[in-house]
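User: Modeling request: complex.
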Amino acid sequence: MSAALDTVPEERIPQGSPLRKLLARPELGSVVGALAVLVFFACTADGFLRASSLGTVLYASSTIGIMAVPVALLMIGGEFDLSAGVMVTSSALISSMFSYQMTANTWVGAGVSLLVTLAVGAFNGFVLTRTKLPSFIVTLGTFLMLTGLNLGLTKLIDGTVSTKSIADMQGFPSARAVFASTLTVGGVDLKVTVLWWLGLVVLASWILLRTRAGNWIFAVGGDREAARAVGVPVNRTRIGLYMGVAFGAWISGQHLLFSFDAVQSGEGVGNELIYIIAAVIGGCLITGGYGSAVGSAVGALLFGMTSKGIVFAEWNPDWFKFFLGAMLLLATLLNHWVRKRAEAAK
Amino acid sequence: MTESKQAATGSGRATASGPSAPAGTPAETPAGSAGGASGAGERVPLVELTGVAKRYGTVRALEGVGLEVHAGEITCVLGDNGAGKSTLIKIIAGLHQHDAGTLRIDGEETRLGSPREALDLGIATVHQNLAVVPLMPVWRNFFLGSEPRKGSGPFKRLDTEHMRRTTRAELLRMGIDLRDVDQPIGTLSGGERQCVAIARAVYFGAKVLVLDEPTAALGVKQSGVVLKYVAAARDQGLGVVLITHNPHHAHLVGDRFVLLRRGTMVGHHTRDGITLDELTRQMAGGADLDALVHELGRD
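Assistant: Request completed. Predicted assembly structure:
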Protein backbone atom coordinates (compact mmCIF):
# COMPACT_ATOMS: atom_id res chain seq x y z
CA MET A 1 0.00 0.00 0.00
CA SER A 2 2.73 2.36 0.94
CA ALA A 3 4.56 1.62 -2.27
CA ALA A 4 1.52 2.61 -4.27
CA LEU A 5 1.06 5.73 -2.19
CA ASP A 6 4.60 6.91 -2.45
CA THR A 7 5.15 6.31 -6.11
CA VAL A 8 2.13 8.31 -7.21
CA PRO A 9 3.72 11.76 -6.89
CA GLU A 10 6.91 10.40 -8.42
CA GLU A 11 5.10 9.46 -11.63
CA ARG A 12 3.65 12.92 -11.91
CA ILE A 13 7.07 14.50 -11.77
CA PRO A 14 8.90 14.50 -15.08
CA GLN A 15 12.54 13.49 -14.88
CA GLY A 16 14.84 16.51 -14.85
CA SER A 17 16.48 16.77 -18.27
CA PRO A 18 20.03 18.12 -18.66
CA LEU A 19 18.54 21.30 -20.12
CA ARG A 20 16.39 21.77 -17.03
CA LYS A 21 19.44 21.25 -14.84
CA LEU A 22 21.25 23.90 -16.82
CA LEU A 23 18.34 26.28 -16.46
CA ALA A 24 18.35 25.77 -12.73
CA ARG A 25 21.93 26.99 -12.35
CA PRO A 26 22.14 30.34 -10.56
CA GLU A 27 24.72 31.69 -13.02
CA LEU A 28 22.56 31.26 -16.11
CA GLY A 29 21.06 34.74 -16.15
CA SER A 30 24.42 36.43 -15.81
CA VAL A 31 26.03 34.26 -18.50
CA VAL A 32 23.28 35.11 -20.97
CA GLY A 33 23.59 38.78 -20.02
CA ALA A 34 27.38 38.74 -20.36
CA LEU A 35 27.15 37.15 -23.81
CA ALA A 36 24.61 39.76 -24.89
CA VAL A 37 26.85 42.60 -23.70
CA LEU A 38 29.86 41.01 -25.39
CA VAL A 39 28.05 40.76 -28.71
CA PHE A 40 26.64 44.24 -28.32
CA PHE A 41 30.00 45.94 -27.78
CA ALA A 42 31.74 43.70 -30.31
CA CYS A 43 29.37 45.15 -32.89
CA THR A 44 29.30 48.77 -31.74
CA ALA A 45 32.77 49.41 -30.31
CA ASP A 46 35.88 49.18 -32.47
CA GLY A 47 38.71 47.36 -30.80
CA PHE A 48 36.56 45.82 -28.06
CA LEU A 49 37.59 42.35 -29.14
CA ARG A 50 41.30 43.16 -29.42
CA ALA A 51 43.72 41.31 -27.12
CA SER A 52 44.85 44.55 -25.50
CA SER A 53 41.26 45.39 -24.62
CA LEU A 54 40.87 42.00 -22.99
CA GLY A 55 43.49 42.93 -20.39
CA THR A 56 41.74 46.23 -19.66
CA VAL A 57 38.31 44.63 -19.34
CA LEU A 58 39.62 41.83 -17.12
CA TYR A 59 41.39 44.33 -14.88
CA ALA A 60 38.24 46.41 -14.44
CA SER A 61 36.29 43.23 -13.74
CA SER A 62 38.81 41.90 -11.25
CA THR A 63 38.80 45.00 -9.04
CA ILE A 64 35.04 44.52 -8.64
CA GLY A 65 35.25 40.74 -8.67
CA ILE A 66 37.66 40.41 -5.75
CA MET A 67 35.02 41.97 -3.52
CA ALA A 68 31.99 40.53 -5.32
CA VAL A 69 33.07 36.98 -4.38
CA PRO A 70 32.96 37.37 -0.57
CA VAL A 71 29.95 39.70 -0.87
CA ALA A 72 28.17 36.95 -2.83
CA LEU A 73 28.96 34.43 -0.08
CA LEU A 74 27.63 36.87 2.47
CA MET A 75 24.44 37.35 0.45
CA ILE A 76 23.98 33.59 0.13
CA GLY A 77 24.27 33.63 3.92
CA GLY A 78 21.38 36.10 3.94
CA GLU A 79 23.14 39.35 4.86
CA PHE A 80 24.36 42.63 3.37
CA ASP A 81 27.51 44.57 4.02
CA LEU A 82 27.19 48.25 3.20
CA SER A 83 30.58 48.97 4.74
CA ALA A 84 32.42 46.84 2.16
CA GLY A 85 33.25 49.79 -0.12
CA VAL A 86 34.87 52.09 2.41
CA MET A 87 36.45 49.15 4.22
CA VAL A 88 38.70 48.76 1.17
CA THR A 89 39.89 52.34 1.61
CA SER A 90 40.26 51.92 5.37
CA SER A 91 42.41 48.86 4.82
CA ALA A 92 44.67 50.75 2.39
CA LEU A 93 44.91 53.74 4.73
CA ILE A 94 45.86 51.65 7.75
CA SER A 95 48.52 49.82 5.78
CA SER A 96 49.97 53.01 4.33
CA MET A 97 49.87 55.12 7.50
CA PHE A 98 51.25 52.41 9.74
CA SER A 99 54.22 51.85 7.43
CA TYR A 100 54.88 55.59 7.11
CA GLN A 101 54.42 56.63 10.73
CA MET A 102 56.34 53.68 12.20
CA THR A 103 58.86 53.67 9.38
CA ALA A 104 58.12 49.98 9.15
CA ASN A 105 58.46 47.52 6.31
CA THR A 106 55.37 47.79 4.10
CA TRP A 107 54.66 44.13 4.78
CA VAL A 108 54.33 44.90 8.48
CA GLY A 109 51.87 47.64 7.58
CA ALA A 110 49.96 45.20 5.39
CA GLY A 111 49.92 42.67 8.23
CA VAL A 112 48.57 45.20 10.72
CA SER A 113 46.00 46.26 8.14
CA LEU A 114 44.89 42.65 7.70
CA LEU A 115 44.34 42.23 11.43
CA VAL A 116 42.45 45.51 11.83
CA THR A 117 40.30 44.91 8.74
CA LEU A 118 39.41 41.40 9.90
CA ALA A 119 38.53 42.91 13.28
CA VAL A 120 36.16 45.37 11.58
CA GLY A 121 34.51 42.46 9.77
CA ALA A 122 34.25 40.52 13.01
CA PHE A 123 32.77 43.63 14.66
CA ASN A 124 30.06 43.79 11.99
CA GLY A 125 29.22 40.14 12.50
CA PHE A 126 29.41 40.30 16.26
CA VAL A 127 27.15 43.35 16.60
CA LEU A 128 24.71 41.78 14.14
CA THR A 129 24.47 38.46 15.94
CA ARG A 130 24.37 40.03 19.39
CA THR A 131 21.86 42.80 18.80
CA LYS A 132 19.78 40.90 16.21
CA LEU A 133 19.42 44.18 14.32
CA PRO A 134 19.09 43.90 10.54
CA SER A 135 22.44 43.86 8.74
CA PHE A 136 21.30 46.85 6.70
CA ILE A 137 21.34 49.05 9.81
CA VAL A 138 24.43 47.61 11.44
CA THR A 139 26.63 47.86 8.36
CA LEU A 140 25.18 51.24 7.43
CA GLY A 141 26.46 52.37 10.82
CA THR A 142 29.87 50.85 10.19
CA PHE A 143 29.88 52.41 6.72
CA LEU A 144 29.33 55.91 8.11
CA MET A 145 31.78 55.44 10.96
CA LEU A 146 34.50 54.17 8.65
CA THR A 147 33.88 57.01 6.17
CA GLY A 148 34.31 59.51 9.00
CA LEU A 149 37.36 57.77 10.42
CA ASN A 150 39.03 57.54 7.02
CA LEU A 151 38.75 61.31 6.44
CA GLY A 152 39.18 62.44 10.02
CA LEU A 153 42.22 60.35 10.92
CA THR A 154 43.98 60.97 7.62
CA LYS A 155 43.61 64.74 8.02
CA LEU A 156 44.64 64.53 11.66
CA ILE A 157 47.76 62.49 10.99
CA ASP A 158 48.86 63.62 7.53
CA GLY A 159 47.26 67.07 7.40
CA THR A 160 45.74 66.42 3.96
CA VAL A 161 43.11 64.13 2.49
CA SER A 162 45.67 61.73 1.08
CA THR A 163 48.44 59.72 2.71
CA LYS A 164 52.17 60.33 2.22
CA SER A 165 54.00 58.30 -0.39
CA ILE A 166 55.46 55.05 0.87
CA ALA A 167 57.28 54.29 -2.40
CA ASP A 168 60.72 54.44 -0.75
CA MET A 169 59.78 52.25 2.20
CA GLN A 170 61.28 48.83 2.69
CA GLY A 171 59.33 45.99 1.12
CA PHE A 172 57.46 48.27 -1.28
CA PRO A 173 58.69 46.59 -4.49
CA SER A 174 57.80 43.09 -3.33
CA ALA A 175 54.41 44.19 -2.01
CA ARG A 176 53.73 45.93 -5.31
CA ALA A 177 54.68 42.75 -7.16
CA VAL A 178 52.18 40.74 -5.13
CA PHE A 179 49.29 43.19 -5.17
CA ALA A 180 49.68 45.36 -8.25
CA SER A 181 52.09 43.95 -10.82
CA THR A 182 51.39 43.31 -14.47
CA LEU A 183 52.07 39.97 -16.09
CA THR A 184 52.27 39.34 -19.79
CA VAL A 185 50.52 36.16 -20.81
CA GLY A 186 50.51 35.33 -24.52
CA GLY A 187 50.81 38.95 -25.57
CA VAL A 188 48.06 40.11 -23.21
CA ASP A 189 48.96 42.37 -20.28
CA LEU A 190 47.23 40.95 -17.25
CA LYS A 191 47.10 42.66 -13.90
CA VAL A 192 47.88 40.37 -10.98
CA THR A 193 44.45 41.20 -9.52
CA VAL A 194 42.98 38.91 -12.16
CA LEU A 195 44.85 36.03 -10.54
CA TRP A 196 43.68 37.06 -7.06
CA TRP A 197 40.15 37.20 -8.44
CA LEU A 198 40.32 33.76 -10.06
CA GLY A 199 41.92 32.34 -6.93
CA LEU A 200 39.14 33.72 -4.76
CA VAL A 201 36.45 32.36 -7.10
CA VAL A 202 37.98 28.88 -6.94
CA LEU A 203 38.42 29.07 -3.17
CA ALA A 204 34.89 30.35 -2.60
CA SER A 205 33.38 27.71 -4.89
CA TRP A 206 35.30 25.03 -3.04
CA ILE A 207 34.07 26.33 0.30
CA LEU A 208 30.48 26.66 -0.88
CA LEU A 209 30.10 23.31 -2.60
CA ARG A 210 32.55 20.99 -0.95
CA THR A 211 32.92 21.98 2.68
CA ARG A 212 30.81 21.88 5.79
CA ALA A 213 31.05 25.67 6.07
CA GLY A 214 29.51 25.96 2.61
CA ASN A 215 26.55 23.82 3.59
CA TRP A 216 26.11 26.03 6.63
CA ILE A 217 26.24 29.23 4.56
CA PHE A 218 23.39 28.01 2.32
CA ALA A 219 21.43 26.86 5.36
CA VAL A 220 21.90 30.05 7.36
CA GLY A 221 20.74 32.11 4.40
CA GLY A 222 17.93 29.76 3.42
CA ASP A 223 16.33 29.28 6.83
CA ARG A 224 18.22 30.47 9.87
CA GLU A 225 15.90 28.90 12.43
CA ALA A 226 15.96 25.54 10.68
CA ALA A 227 19.75 25.69 10.54
CA ARG A 228 19.96 26.50 14.23
CA ALA A 229 17.58 23.67 15.08
CA VAL A 230 19.76 21.04 13.41
CA GLY A 231 22.87 22.26 15.19
CA VAL A 232 24.50 24.56 12.63
CA PRO A 233 26.65 27.19 14.41
CA VAL A 234 24.64 30.03 12.90
CA ASN A 235 26.36 32.98 14.56
CA ARG A 236 29.86 31.67 13.93
CA THR A 237 28.99 31.20 10.26
CA ARG A 238 27.67 34.74 9.96
CA ILE A 239 30.66 36.30 11.70
CA GLY A 240 32.93 34.22 9.45
CA LEU A 241 31.17 35.57 6.36
CA TYR A 242 31.73 39.17 7.47
CA MET A 243 35.39 38.36 8.07
CA GLY A 244 35.51 36.94 4.54
CA VAL A 245 34.32 40.27 3.19
CA ALA A 246 36.98 41.97 5.33
CA PHE A 247 39.62 39.69 3.81
CA GLY A 248 38.48 40.67 0.31
CA ALA A 249 38.59 44.33 1.37
CA TRP A 250 42.16 43.84 2.57
CA ILE A 251 43.30 42.42 -0.80
CA SER A 252 41.51 45.21 -2.68
CA GLY A 253 42.88 47.80 -0.27
CA GLN A 254 46.46 46.62 -0.71
CA HIS A 255 45.98 46.72 -4.46
CA LEU A 256 44.65 50.26 -4.18
CA LEU A 257 47.69 51.30 -2.17
CA PHE A 258 50.42 49.49 -4.07
CA SER A 259 49.19 50.37 -7.58
CA PHE A 260 50.25 53.89 -6.60
CA ASP A 261 52.05 54.76 -3.41
CA ALA A 262 49.44 56.83 -1.62
CA VAL A 263 45.70 56.60 -0.92
CA GLN A 264 42.90 59.17 -1.19
CA SER A 265 40.93 58.93 2.04
CA GLY A 266 37.56 59.70 0.45
CA GLU A 267 37.57 56.78 -1.97
CA GLY A 268 35.39 53.71 -1.92
CA VAL A 269 32.04 55.29 -1.06
CA GLY A 270 29.35 53.77 -3.27
CA ASN A 271 31.38 50.74 -4.29
CA GLU A 272 29.55 48.54 -1.78
CA LEU A 273 26.47 48.77 -4.02
CA ILE A 274 28.50 47.79 -7.06
CA TYR A 275 29.67 44.60 -5.31
CA ILE A 276 26.10 43.80 -4.35
CA ILE A 277 24.94 44.47 -7.92
CA ALA A 278 27.59 42.11 -9.31
CA ALA A 279 26.50 39.39 -6.87
CA VAL A 280 22.82 39.87 -7.69
CA ILE A 281 23.42 39.90 -11.44
CA GLY A 282 25.38 36.71 -10.84
CA GLY A 283 22.28 35.02 -9.48
CA CYS A 284 22.45 35.58 -5.73
CA LEU A 285 18.97 35.70 -4.27
CA ILE A 286 18.55 38.97 -2.38
CA THR A 287 16.80 37.07 0.41
CA GLY A 288 19.66 34.59 0.79
CA GLY A 289 20.11 30.85 0.45
CA TYR A 290 20.83 30.77 -3.26
CA GLY A 291 23.65 31.87 -5.54
CA SER A 292 27.20 31.03 -6.53
CA ALA A 293 30.72 32.41 -6.52
CA VAL A 294 31.11 31.80 -10.24
CA GLY A 295 27.95 33.83 -10.82
CA SER A 296 29.41 36.78 -8.96
CA ALA A 297 32.49 36.54 -11.18
CA VAL A 298 30.33 36.66 -14.30
CA GLY A 299 28.47 39.59 -12.77
CA ALA A 300 31.77 41.39 -12.23
CA LEU A 301 32.86 40.54 -15.78
CA LEU A 302 29.62 41.99 -17.13
CA PHE A 303 30.38 45.07 -15.11
CA GLY A 304 33.91 45.36 -16.48
CA MET A 305 32.78 44.84 -20.05
CA THR A 306 30.13 47.55 -19.79
CA SER A 307 32.36 50.13 -18.13
CA LYS A 308 35.16 49.63 -20.65
CA GLY A 309 32.89 48.94 -23.62
CA ILE A 310 31.36 52.38 -23.27
CA VAL A 311 34.86 53.87 -23.39
CA PHE A 312 35.81 51.83 -26.45
CA ALA A 313 32.58 52.86 -28.16
CA GLU A 314 33.58 56.46 -27.40
CA TRP A 315 30.32 57.22 -25.69
CA ASN A 316 29.87 59.64 -22.88
CA PRO A 317 30.67 57.61 -19.73
CA ASP A 318 27.72 59.29 -18.05
CA TRP A 319 25.60 56.60 -19.67
CA PHE A 320 27.38 53.89 -17.73
CA LYS A 321 25.12 54.08 -14.67
CA PHE A 322 22.03 53.93 -16.86
CA PHE A 323 23.30 50.79 -18.54
CA LEU A 324 24.17 49.30 -15.19
CA GLY A 325 20.73 49.91 -13.79
CA ALA A 326 19.01 48.49 -16.85
CA MET A 327 21.26 45.45 -16.74
CA LEU A 328 20.61 44.84 -13.06
CA LEU A 329 16.88 44.89 -13.67
CA LEU A 330 17.07 42.66 -16.72
CA ALA A 331 19.42 40.14 -15.13
CA THR A 332 17.33 39.93 -11.97
CA LEU A 333 14.14 39.49 -13.98
CA LEU A 334 15.78 36.80 -16.06
CA ASN A 335 17.08 35.00 -12.97
CA HIS A 336 13.66 35.19 -11.39
CA TRP A 337 11.92 33.88 -14.47
CA VAL A 338 14.43 31.07 -14.99
CA ARG A 339 14.24 29.93 -11.39
CA LYS A 340 10.46 29.93 -11.42
CA ARG A 341 10.37 27.86 -14.56
CA ALA A 342 12.99 25.46 -13.27
CA GLU A 343 11.18 24.97 -10.00
CA ALA A 344 7.76 24.62 -11.59
CA ALA A 345 9.04 22.02 -14.04
CA LYS A 346 10.70 19.87 -11.41
CA MET B 1 -2.21 8.54 41.55
CA THR B 2 -0.45 8.64 38.26
CA GLU B 3 2.82 7.82 40.02
CA SER B 4 1.57 4.38 41.05
CA LYS B 5 0.31 3.74 37.56
CA GLN B 6 3.70 4.40 36.05
CA ALA B 7 5.42 2.30 38.69
CA ALA B 8 3.11 -0.58 37.89
CA THR B 9 3.77 -0.51 34.18
CA GLY B 10 7.42 0.21 34.78
CA SER B 11 8.05 -2.81 36.98
CA GLY B 12 5.92 -4.96 34.72
CA ARG B 13 8.15 -4.16 31.79
CA ALA B 14 11.31 -4.55 33.79
CA THR B 15 10.51 -8.11 34.83
CA ALA B 16 9.72 -8.88 31.25
CA SER B 17 13.01 -7.51 30.07
CA GLY B 18 15.17 -9.71 32.30
CA PRO B 19 15.80 -11.00 35.82
CA SER B 20 19.15 -9.24 36.17
CA ALA B 21 17.59 -5.78 36.26
CA PRO B 22 16.99 -5.30 40.04
CA ALA B 23 20.70 -5.60 40.89
CA GLY B 24 21.93 -2.46 39.19
CA THR B 25 19.05 -0.09 38.81
CA PRO B 26 18.07 1.18 42.29
CA ALA B 27 21.34 3.01 42.81
CA GLU B 28 21.11 4.95 39.60
CA THR B 29 17.47 5.95 39.84
CA PRO B 30 16.97 8.89 42.13
CA ALA B 31 13.61 9.13 40.44
CA GLY B 32 12.67 5.79 41.94
CA SER B 33 12.75 7.22 45.45
CA ALA B 34 9.43 8.94 44.86
CA GLY B 35 7.75 5.63 44.21
CA GLY B 36 9.30 4.09 47.38
CA ALA B 37 10.51 0.52 47.64
CA SER B 38 8.23 -0.65 44.87
CA GLY B 39 10.41 1.35 42.45
CA ALA B 40 13.12 -1.29 42.55
CA GLY B 41 13.60 -2.67 39.05
CA GLU B 42 11.92 0.30 37.38
CA ARG B 43 13.61 1.31 34.16
CA VAL B 44 15.21 4.70 33.93
CA PRO B 45 13.20 6.78 31.46
CA LEU B 46 15.18 8.17 28.54
CA VAL B 47 13.68 11.56 29.27
CA GLU B 48 11.81 12.53 32.40
CA LEU B 49 10.29 15.90 33.23
CA THR B 50 8.90 16.68 36.67
CA GLY B 51 7.13 19.88 37.68
CA VAL B 52 8.56 21.81 34.77
CA ALA B 53 7.59 25.48 34.44
CA LYS B 54 8.40 28.13 31.87
CA ARG B 55 7.57 31.80 31.77
CA TYR B 56 7.90 34.28 28.93
CA GLY B 57 8.10 37.56 30.75
CA THR B 58 4.94 37.64 32.83
CA VAL B 59 3.16 35.05 30.73
CA ARG B 60 3.05 31.61 32.27
CA ALA B 61 3.53 29.23 29.37
CA LEU B 62 3.97 26.03 31.38
CA GLU B 63 3.39 25.11 35.00
CA GLY B 64 4.01 21.81 36.79
CA VAL B 65 4.21 19.58 33.74
CA GLY B 66 5.60 16.07 34.02
CA LEU B 67 6.29 13.53 31.31
CA GLU B 68 8.36 10.45 30.75
CA VAL B 69 9.67 8.78 27.66
CA HIS B 70 10.81 5.17 27.57
CA ALA B 71 12.68 3.30 24.90
CA GLY B 72 10.32 1.58 22.47
CA GLU B 73 7.36 3.63 23.58
CA ILE B 74 5.43 6.57 22.21
CA THR B 75 4.46 9.32 24.61
CA CYS B 76 1.78 11.57 23.16
CA VAL B 77 1.40 15.16 24.25
CA LEU B 78 -2.08 16.40 23.49
CA GLY B 79 -3.53 19.85 23.79
CA ASP B 80 -5.34 22.59 21.98
CA ASN B 81 -3.62 25.60 20.44
CA GLY B 82 -1.82 27.59 23.11
CA ALA B 83 -1.79 24.69 25.56
CA GLY B 84 1.98 24.83 25.86
CA LYS B 85 2.87 21.88 23.64
CA SER B 86 5.43 23.82 21.64
CA THR B 87 7.04 25.28 24.75
CA LEU B 88 7.30 21.80 26.21
CA ILE B 89 9.15 20.37 23.25
CA LYS B 90 11.36 23.42 22.96
CA ILE B 91 12.59 22.61 26.46
CA ILE B 92 13.27 18.99 25.51
CA ALA B 93 14.93 20.09 22.25
CA GLY B 94 17.22 22.59 23.96
CA LEU B 95 15.77 25.67 22.29
CA HIS B 96 14.47 27.07 25.59
CA GLN B 97 15.47 26.43 29.21
CA HIS B 98 12.94 25.62 31.90
CA ASP B 99 12.57 28.02 34.85
CA ALA B 100 11.54 25.45 37.45
CA GLY B 101 11.24 21.69 37.87
CA THR B 102 13.69 19.09 36.65
CA LEU B 103 14.64 17.58 33.33
CA ARG B 104 16.37 14.23 33.58
CA ILE B 105 18.01 12.50 30.66
CA ASP B 106 18.96 8.88 31.32
CA GLY B 107 18.30 9.62 34.98
CA GLU B 108 20.71 12.51 35.14
CA GLU B 109 19.45 15.99 35.83
CA THR B 110 20.38 18.42 33.08
CA ARG B 111 19.54 21.76 31.55
CA LEU B 112 19.97 21.88 27.80
CA GLY B 113 21.76 24.98 26.56
CA SER B 114 21.36 24.48 22.84
CA PRO B 115 19.83 22.15 20.25
CA ARG B 116 23.37 20.83 19.67
CA GLU B 117 23.58 19.66 23.31
CA ALA B 118 20.24 17.90 22.98
CA LEU B 119 21.39 16.21 19.78
CA ASP B 120 24.61 15.08 21.42
CA LEU B 121 22.51 13.44 24.15
CA GLY B 122 20.52 11.60 21.51
CA ILE B 123 17.43 13.77 21.43
CA ALA B 124 16.41 14.63 17.90
CA THR B 125 13.52 16.96 17.28
CA VAL B 126 11.49 17.14 14.11
CA HIS B 127 9.97 20.61 14.26
CA GLN B 128 6.72 21.69 12.73
CA ASN B 129 8.65 23.59 10.08
CA LEU B 130 10.74 20.39 9.81
CA ALA B 131 14.00 22.29 10.12
CA VAL B 132 14.71 21.83 6.44
CA VAL B 133 15.98 24.53 4.14
CA PRO B 134 13.61 24.51 1.13
CA LEU B 135 16.09 25.70 -1.52
CA MET B 136 18.77 23.17 -0.58
CA PRO B 137 18.98 19.73 -2.22
CA VAL B 138 17.52 16.79 -0.30
CA TRP B 139 20.94 15.26 0.38
CA ARG B 140 22.41 18.47 1.78
CA ASN B 141 19.39 18.84 4.05
CA PHE B 142 19.67 15.24 5.20
CA PHE B 143 23.17 15.76 6.56
CA LEU B 144 22.83 19.42 7.55
CA GLY B 145 24.67 20.13 10.77
CA SER B 146 26.37 16.70 10.86
CA GLU B 147 28.11 16.51 7.53
CA PRO B 148 30.50 13.59 6.98
CA ARG B 149 33.90 14.56 5.62
CA LYS B 150 36.89 12.88 4.06
CA GLY B 151 40.47 13.92 3.40
CA SER B 152 42.62 15.87 5.80
CA GLY B 153 44.01 19.31 6.47
CA PRO B 154 42.92 22.03 4.08
CA PHE B 155 41.55 19.39 1.71
CA LYS B 156 39.03 18.10 4.21
CA ARG B 157 35.86 18.05 2.21
CA LEU B 158 32.29 16.83 2.21
CA ASP B 159 31.94 13.20 1.27
CA THR B 160 29.29 14.08 -1.30
CA GLU B 161 29.20 10.64 -2.90
CA HIS B 162 28.51 8.99 0.45
CA MET B 163 25.99 11.70 1.33
CA ARG B 164 23.97 11.24 -1.84
CA ARG B 165 24.07 7.45 -1.66
CA THR B 166 23.11 7.30 2.01
CA THR B 167 20.26 9.77 1.59
CA ARG B 168 18.82 7.72 -1.24
CA ALA B 169 19.21 4.43 0.65
CA GLU B 170 17.75 5.73 3.92
CA LEU B 171 14.76 7.20 2.13
CA LEU B 172 14.22 3.98 0.21
CA ARG B 173 14.09 2.17 3.55
CA MET B 174 11.22 4.46 4.46
CA GLY B 175 9.56 3.71 1.15
CA ILE B 176 10.31 7.00 -0.55
CA ASP B 177 11.88 6.51 -3.94
CA LEU B 178 13.58 9.73 -4.98
CA ARG B 179 15.24 9.41 -8.31
CA ASP B 180 16.91 12.75 -7.83
CA VAL B 181 18.20 13.56 -4.35
CA ASP B 182 19.58 16.77 -5.88
CA GLN B 183 16.16 18.37 -6.12
CA PRO B 184 15.45 21.13 -3.63
CA ILE B 185 13.64 19.67 -0.63
CA GLY B 186 10.98 22.34 -1.07
CA THR B 187 9.73 20.44 -4.12
CA LEU B 188 8.76 17.35 -2.06
CA SER B 189 5.28 16.86 -0.63
CA GLY B 190 4.61 17.58 3.04
CA GLY B 191 4.47 13.91 3.98
CA GLU B 192 7.70 13.16 2.13
CA ARG B 193 9.48 16.03 3.86
CA GLN B 194 8.22 14.77 7.21
CA CYS B 195 9.57 11.31 6.42
CA VAL B 196 12.92 12.77 5.34
CA ALA B 197 13.13 14.56 8.67
CA ILE B 198 12.26 11.39 10.59
CA ALA B 199 14.67 9.28 8.52
CA ARG B 200 17.37 11.84 9.25
CA ALA B 201 16.81 11.63 13.00
CA VAL B 202 16.77 7.83 12.98
CA TYR B 203 19.89 7.65 10.83
CA PHE B 204 21.83 9.88 13.19
CA GLY B 205 21.24 7.48 16.04
CA ALA B 206 18.63 9.40 17.96
CA LYS B 207 17.52 7.66 21.15
CA VAL B 208 14.60 9.99 21.56
CA LEU B 209 12.58 11.33 18.66
CA VAL B 210 10.48 14.41 19.31
CA LEU B 211 7.84 15.05 16.66
CA ASP B 212 5.98 18.35 16.67
CA GLU B 213 2.57 17.96 15.02
CA PRO B 214 3.86 15.68 12.26
CA THR B 215 0.40 15.15 10.83
CA ALA B 216 -1.03 18.63 11.30
CA ALA B 217 -0.74 19.83 7.72
CA LEU B 218 -1.23 16.47 6.03
CA GLY B 219 -4.09 14.71 4.31
CA VAL B 220 -5.53 11.44 5.63
CA LYS B 221 -3.38 9.11 3.52
CA GLN B 222 -0.17 11.04 4.07
CA SER B 223 -0.88 11.11 7.81
CA GLY B 224 -1.20 7.33 7.73
CA VAL B 225 2.18 7.01 6.04
CA VAL B 226 3.83 9.28 8.57
CA LEU B 227 2.25 7.47 11.54
CA LYS B 228 3.53 4.19 10.14
CA TYR B 229 7.07 5.54 10.20
CA VAL B 230 6.58 6.84 13.70
CA ALA B 231 5.59 3.32 14.72
CA ALA B 232 8.55 1.93 12.78
CA ALA B 233 10.90 4.23 14.71
CA ARG B 234 9.38 3.00 17.97
CA ASP B 235 9.85 -0.62 16.91
CA GLN B 236 13.53 0.14 16.33
CA GLY B 237 13.72 0.91 20.05
CA LEU B 238 13.50 4.68 20.00
CA GLY B 239 11.59 6.64 22.56
CA VAL B 240 9.13 8.89 20.76
CA VAL B 241 7.41 12.07 21.90
CA LEU B 242 4.49 12.79 19.61
CA ILE B 243 2.93 16.21 19.88
CA THR B 244 -0.51 16.40 18.35
CA HIS B 245 -3.96 17.83 18.72
CA ASN B 246 -5.50 14.87 16.99
CA PRO B 247 -6.61 12.26 19.58
CA HIS B 248 -7.31 9.71 16.84
CA HIS B 249 -3.74 9.79 15.64
CA ALA B 250 -2.46 9.76 19.21
CA HIS B 251 -4.55 6.78 20.26
CA LEU B 252 -3.50 4.80 17.17
CA VAL B 253 0.14 4.71 18.17
CA GLY B 254 0.54 6.12 21.69
CA ASP B 255 1.56 4.27 24.87
CA ARG B 256 1.28 7.22 27.24
CA PHE B 257 -0.78 10.34 26.99
CA VAL B 258 -0.12 13.70 28.56
CA LEU B 259 -2.93 16.22 28.25
CA LEU B 260 -2.14 19.91 28.47
CA ARG B 261 -4.49 22.83 28.79
CA ARG B 262 -3.44 26.45 29.09
CA GLY B 263 0.02 25.55 30.27
CA THR B 264 -0.93 23.02 32.93
CA MET B 265 -1.14 19.26 32.86
CA VAL B 266 -4.75 18.11 33.08
CA GLY B 267 -4.23 14.40 32.59
CA HIS B 268 -1.62 11.67 32.45
CA HIS B 269 -2.72 8.27 31.23
CA THR B 270 -1.28 5.03 29.97
CA ARG B 271 -2.74 3.28 26.96
CA ASP B 272 -4.79 0.77 28.95
CA GLY B 273 -6.02 3.54 31.25
CA ILE B 274 -8.03 5.49 28.71
CA THR B 275 -10.30 4.85 25.73
CA LEU B 276 -10.28 6.81 22.50
CA ASP B 277 -13.66 8.33 23.33
CA GLU B 278 -12.50 9.49 26.72
CA LEU B 279 -9.29 10.85 25.25
CA THR B 280 -11.23 12.73 22.59
CA ARG B 281 -13.61 14.12 25.19
CA GLN B 282 -10.82 15.30 27.49
CA MET B 283 -8.88 16.66 24.56
CA ALA B 284 -11.89 18.58 23.32
CA GLY B 285 -12.22 20.24 26.67
CA GLY B 286 -14.30 17.80 28.74
CA ALA B 287 -16.63 19.88 30.87
CA ASP B 288 -16.10 22.89 28.58
CA LEU B 289 -17.42 20.84 25.69
CA ASP B 290 -20.50 19.82 27.65
CA ALA B 291 -21.13 23.47 28.39
CA LEU B 292 -20.68 24.33 24.73
CA VAL B 293 -23.11 21.58 23.67
CA HIS B 294 -25.61 23.01 26.12
CA GLU B 295 -25.00 26.55 24.93
CA LEU B 296 -25.56 25.61 21.31
CA GLY B 297 -28.78 23.92 22.31
CA ARG B 298 -27.93 20.55 20.87
CA ASP B 299 -28.58 18.40 23.97
